[in-house]
Specification:
By secondary structure, this protein is mainly alpha-helical. The protein is built from four helices and no strands. The longest helix is centred in the first third of the chain and has 38 residues.
């Protein structure tokens, strides 16, 4: 029979055991989220039954649940090493734009210009 080489250092790496811990936590979280999704599906059906359209607020919340479920399942099935919410960075929000500061003219200069215009208009009236 063939013997398999087992590297004890690979088995004892803490990062692998931490991943197992996270996998268990996200497995329980997926179970909880699935229960919530089934309840929300029934509530959405009631909205659809009585109003002929789904509730927009619940639909928006469902998008977040679907994203969490998808990310968690990808992590559990080793499709990605990135941990889902709340450890995942939120890329949905756009980065804040660059703030450009402008200089404003002092009040004295602005009033000085208007008084000069007023002085020239009074002088032209006198001529």
């Amino acid at each position: 029979m063939n013997q398999i080489d087992i590297d004890k250092e690979e088995i004892l790496k803490t990062s692998k055991w931490i991943r197992l811990l996270f996998m268990l936590l996200y497995g329980f979280a997926i179970n909880f989220v699935l229960t919530i999704c089934l309840g929300l599906a029934f509530i959405q059906f009631l909205f659809y039954l009585f109003t002929s359209k789904p509730n927009v607020s619940i639909a928006n919340f469902n998008e977040h649940l679907i994203g969490f479920f998808s990310d968690s399942l990808a992590f559990l099935l080793f499709q990605t090493d990135e941990k889902p919410f709340p450890f995942k960075g939120n890329n949905d929000f756009q980065e804040e734009g660059e703030v450009i500061e402008g200089e404003s003219e002092p009040e004295a200069e602005v009033t000085g210009e208007t008084s000069e215009v007023a002085d020239t208009s009074t002088q032209s009236d006198k001529d």
